[in-house]
Amino acid sequence: MKISRFPHKVKSGAVSVSVYRITRADKRQVFAVGWKDGSQHRRTQFANLAEALAEAKLKAEQLAAGRVEAASLTLGERDEYQAAKERADGVPLIQIVEEWTKARALAGADMLRACQLWAERHGGKVAPSATVAEAVEAFKKQKKADGVDVKAGYERTFPAFVEKLGAQPIGTVKPEAIDEYLAQFAHPVSRNSHHTRIVSLFRWARKRGLLPLDVMTAPERVDRAREPRGEIGLVTSAQLRQAFALLKKNGPQYVPALALASLCGLRRAEVHGQTWEHIDLERKLLRVSAAKPNTPAHRLVPIPAAGVAWLKKHRPKNGKGRLCSNLAIDRIRDICRTAKLDLADNGLRHMWISARVAVTGNVAETALEAGNSPSIIHQSYRELVRKDEAADWFAVAP
Question: How far apart are CA 340 and CA 262, in angstroms?
């Protein structure tokens, strides 16, 4: 393109940008593009006219469109901006600046050193961004491989949780979201049951590297609901004698289960998991077969003389195998209710603990035998049963 007169005006609407021809001291000609940016005059030089005209056209269009800041960029600044976009790997530059600003505010001039220390602590890389749904599936798979029955608890808890937060990366879940989810459970016991299982999930994710290793997880920062203190239901000695009499007539195979629940204080699951091999009637002791290792439930329990008498009458000749079926306690309740004998919920174990405290006067010893903490014994079971009532309970023999 030939231009006879300079400065040459390049227009876009009401905006014009000037192109100048300049002869340098060494007789070389260069071309300058000049424009006004607010109250400032700006100019940039080019070696040839075509580049200068292209730049003038771009500046005029930017200024006409109101993009003053873009128009103020020099060619070098635009190249720098383009290089920054390429290095950003698709992340918006404004997001990079915001994250840098926050990191700088947190770590100051040592920001890069802080990042390096974090990476060293977490294995040199950022935790993978697994979603809540993916974490739940991996968690349940691991529990099944460990022999844990997930149907009773996790299969009931997690579907609604996944429906609510499943698509969200587990590392981005906030305590407020957990609290909002748990708010749907009006009863504090139900809320706390769901809360406990969600905490287990997030702690497992932390150990597997899906969450930072040294940070409290989101559900751990959510308070548990305060549960109302319920009344401790007790079964009387007279009711226990009646229950044994009913079983002798209508379900003798369940007598050993009743003996363990009432005279040894085993929990329902512990009764159902007990084997004869772990019962020593000569030493009057049993080791809880269904107890988890390294927990208070892993313990030795004394067998009173009445319990030994009931068990001897029903012990198999080889002294081996499961003591009862998985639904023995449920069958005992059915038989008793049919006969209009309604036993209090957990009343057999509650009575055993209360009677044991009354007989021994030793809370710590009773806690060990019951697989509870002394604080629970103090809180719930002290001074519920007199010594004569306790003695009568342990005297319920064939």
Answer: 19
Task: Classify burial at 223, counting beta carbons within 10 Å of its beta carbon; exposed 0-12, middle 13-18, buried 19 or more.
Answer: exposed
Per-residue pLDDT, 292: 67
Pairing of strands 15-23, 300-302: unpaired
- Say how far apart CA 352 and CA 385 lie, in whole Å: 10
As a whole number of angstroms, the distance between CA 371 and CA 383 comes to: 20
State yes or no: pLDDT of 352 exceeds 70. Answer: yes
Size of the chain, expressed as the number of residues it contains? 398
The confidence score (pLDDT) of residue 44 equals: 85
pTM of the model: 0.51
Residue 73: the pLDDT is: 55
3-state secondary structure the chain: CCCCCCCEEEEECCEEEEEEEEECCCCCEEEEEEEEECCEEEEEEECCHHHHHHHHHHHHHHHHCCCHHHHCCCHHHHHHHHHHHHHCCCCCHHHHHHHHHHHHHHHHHHHHHHHHHHHHHCCCCCCCCCEHHHHHHHHHHHHHHCCCCCCCCHHHHHHHHHHHHCCCEHHHCCHHHHHHHHCCCCCHHHHHHHHHHHHHHHHHHHHCCCCCCCCCCCHHHCCCCCCCCCCCCCCCHHHHHHHHHHHHHHCHHHHHHHHHHHHCCCCHHHHHHCEHHHEECCCCEEECCCCCCCCCCCCEEECCHHHHHHHHHHCCCCCCCECCCCCHHHHHHHHHHHCCCCCCCCHHHHHHHHHHHHHHCCHHHHHHHHCCCHHHHHHHCCCCCCHHHHHHHCCCCC
116: left (phi over 0), alpha (psi -120 to 50) or beta: alpha
Instruction: Please state, in angstroms and rounded to a whole number, the distance separating the CA atoms of residues 36 and 46.
Output: 18
Question: Cβ(162)–Cβ(136) under 8 Å?
Answer: yes
Span 388-397, pLDDT tens digits: 999 999 999 9
The token duo for 5 is 């007169």
Q: Bigger pLDDT: 389 or 1?
A: 389
- 15-23 and 29-37 beta bridge pairing: antiparallel
